[in-house]
Each structure stands twice: as C-alpha cells, then as structure tokens.
User: Fold this.
Amino acid sequence: MKKIAYLFVQVVMVAGVLAFTLSASGHPDEQAAPIYGVTIPAGYRDWKLISVARVGAPLNDLRAKLGNDIAIKAYRDRKVPFPDGTIIARLAWKQVTSEENNNAIRLRSGIETHLTPAQVEKLLSESFVAGPPTNVQFMVKDSTKFASTGGWGFAQFNDGKPADEATHRTCFSCHEPAKDRDFVFTRYAP
Amino acid sequence: MKRMVFVLIVVAIAAGVIAYTPFRSVHADEEASPIYGVKIPPGYRDWQLIAVKQLHFAGMGEQLRAQVGNDIAIKAFKEGTRPFPDGAIIAAMHWTRVPSEDNDEVLDDAFPGTHSFVIGSPVNVQFMVKDSKKYAATGGWGFADFKDGKPGDKALHETCFPCHRPAKDRDFVFTNYAPAP
Assistant:
C-alpha cells in the first residue's frame, strides 16, 4: 500500500513537471528570426510597460512597448547604452472602435460639456481600443553577438511565426537615426 | 569581534529599512479620492499591461492610454473571472498624444505619408478598486481620479459609476485584455 502511494506521488510529480514544461514553452514549434536568430522570449506579455504609441494609416495600429527587468531598470536609471540582456518588446494591435465604450462617452460628454450629438460623434470617430493583435517585435541586446548592428538583435513575429529575411534586413537601418539613444526610439512614459 | 559583526548587521538592516521606507511612502501626504477614499496604490506603474487605447475626449484632445492591473486583476483578466475578486485594482494611465517626427521619418520609407504618435505628458491616472462590501452601492468598485498626484473633486467622482454602468455585464469594466500578438 505504501509502495502504491509512493508510486502515485511520483506519477503526479512527473505529470506536474510535464504540464509545467509544456505551458512554459508556449510556442514549442517556434522558429527563430532570420539573420539574428532571436526567438520569442517566454512570458514577455507580462513584462512592465515602457510606453504606448499609435501609428496611423496604412498601419492603423495601437502599440505598447514592454521591457524585461534589465530594460526597465536601464530606462529608469537613464542608462545608455542598454546593458547586455536587455530585451524590449513592441506589441501592436489593430485599432478598432468600441461601441460599448463610445456609448458611455456619449453619456458623459452630454452631461459635462453639453455638446451636440453631432459634435460628440465627431470626437468619437477618433476613439479606439486595441483590437486583434498584428505582430510583435523584439530588440535583444548582446554587444558581442550583435556587434555589427549596434549590439542589438531584431525580430518580428506575425502570429508566432518570424517574418522573412527581407523584413529583418530593414530593422537596423530604420533604427540607425536613433543612434544617440542606443538605437531605441521609445522613451519611458512618466 | 562577534559582537561587532552583530552590531554591523543591525546597523546595515536599519539603514536598509530607512532607505526603503521613503521610497515606499512617496505619497505619504497623499489625499484620498472623495466619496470612495481611494489612495494611489504604491508601485502601480510597474503593474502588468491589460490593454492600450486612444481616446479623443471632449475638450481634452487626443490621449493615449494604458490600463494596467495588480496581480489579482491580471489573474482575473487572464482566467476570465467575473465579477473581479476583492483586492483587484485596475489603473488607467492617460497621456496627451503628440505627433512623432522621428518616427514619421523612419516610417516614410516603408509607408510613405504615415503619421505616427507618441505620448506627450501625463494627464491623469484613474483607479478602480474592488471591495464588494465597502463599495456595495457602486457595483463593488471604488473609483479615483488623480491629476498630478491630487485627487479630483467630488463632482468629478460622482460621474465615475454612472459612466461605468453600461459595462454592467462585464462587472463595470470596459477594458478587455489585449491578447499577446
């Protein structure tokens, strides 16, 4: 009986470890980005917020920049260049209108500002929420490995799949104008 | 010698506590929001991201917004738990939206004529704090709106709950969790 109980505990433990391993590697079949070999860092969606942004047509998206702990610390300490191990993630979602939210704003605008319904509608035409995700990009700092591109490795994933080599060829040249800020455009939002 | 080491350790610990204390109580003289008595929760800027928004608010121009949540809120968002459990806090950070010429120049090669925007300066921060007993009359939520660390007036806080009422079937929370791209 004791032996069975022991066996049972072992089976449960193995199952637990297996379940944990599977959930930790959310993208088990994940590929690395061309040129730089960067893969999707585990748990990046839970990283802390650096800032938010929006890009108009034709992209029409809303964006959030998140950073791992090394990145966030460097931002706060205004440490440039960023230390090795820094990872910055840029998440983007298609911007969409939210009728649910707009109805609430209609109510509030009417109470607070006595705007005409037409004026309120004009304002709401510029109000958006994050809709379906579009893609995610990463900048990974490794001053030795990525010495020829300012110490940064770049990656873009669409739906978990890395974008093609041509896309990745554009990363560094686009970031070059921000050379005096270690090739990073985004500033920390107060 | 042993005693000296002990004294040193005590001094080091005391120094640590003193250094840590002012950091934690940055808002020691902070006021609470009217009606609800909600204060700025320490460390909210480091909470995890729920979603982002752009809003053109009457008389306030365009804003870029981010909603973040404490651990209880994030867990409830991820698991779809409604109503949110007591202890959940959602913070909405609002910034002015300004055009970014830096970004436009870069984007112009790939996407000619694209206009991009980044945050300007902070406008305000709002909190929703779940306490189903304390705030039973307002759907279990306490509300707060702070500008520059100071709470808005009572009239402003009277508008919080009526505005959130349309989202009653989502426990009065408008924001949905933005999935990982």
In short: The mean pLDDT of chain A is 84.
